[in-house]
């Protein structure tokens, strides 16, 4: 009896971490992309005295890729791990 509860809790925690991670990482990556594009066209300077511009762009573009991957993979994980419906299994249409 404890195993199904533990599996449901683990699934819920994985979905929460994936969803929250995607919600945090995608905006950071998008804002960095906007800064990078405006810096590339000369409208803005990134201006971090500690980091070079390429480091800023590399790190934040990786955040964007990671966030978009989580936003795709989290619903896929939710769909793949859901319980079959009682009417006739997964994908039953009638």
How does this model look, in words?
- It contains two helices and no strands.
- It is elongated.
- The two termini are 31 Å apart.
- The protein is 72% helix and 0% strand.
- The protein has 94 residues and is mostly helical.
- Helix 1 packs antiparallel against helix 2 (53-81).
Radius of gyration: 20 Å
- Estimate percent helicity: over 70%
Q: In angstroms, what separates the terminal alpha carbons? A: 31 Å
Q: What are the low-pLDDT stretches, counting only 5+ consecutive residues below 50? A: none
Give the overall average pLDDT. Answer: 82
Number of beta strands? 0
Shape: elongated
Sequence of secondary-structure elements: HH
How many helical stretches?
A: 2
Structural class: mainly alpha
Give a quick set of tags describing it.
single chain, 94 residues
Structure described in brief:
This protein is an all-alpha fold and 94 residues long. It has two helices and no strands.
What is this structure's SSE topology?
Blueprint: H1 2-40, H2 53-81
């Amino acid at each position: 009896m404890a195993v199904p509860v533990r599996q449901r809790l683990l699934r819920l925690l994985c979905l929460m971490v994936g969803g929250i991670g995607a919600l945090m990482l995608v905006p950071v990556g998008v804002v960095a992309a906007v800064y990078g594009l405006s810096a590339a066209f000369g409208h803005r300077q990134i201006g971090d005295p500690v980091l070079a511009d390429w480091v800023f762009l590399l790190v934040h573009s990786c955040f964007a890729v990671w966030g978009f991957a989580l936003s795709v993979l989290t619903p896929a994980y939710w769909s793949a791990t859901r319980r079959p419906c009682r009417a006739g299994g997964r994908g039953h249409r009638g």
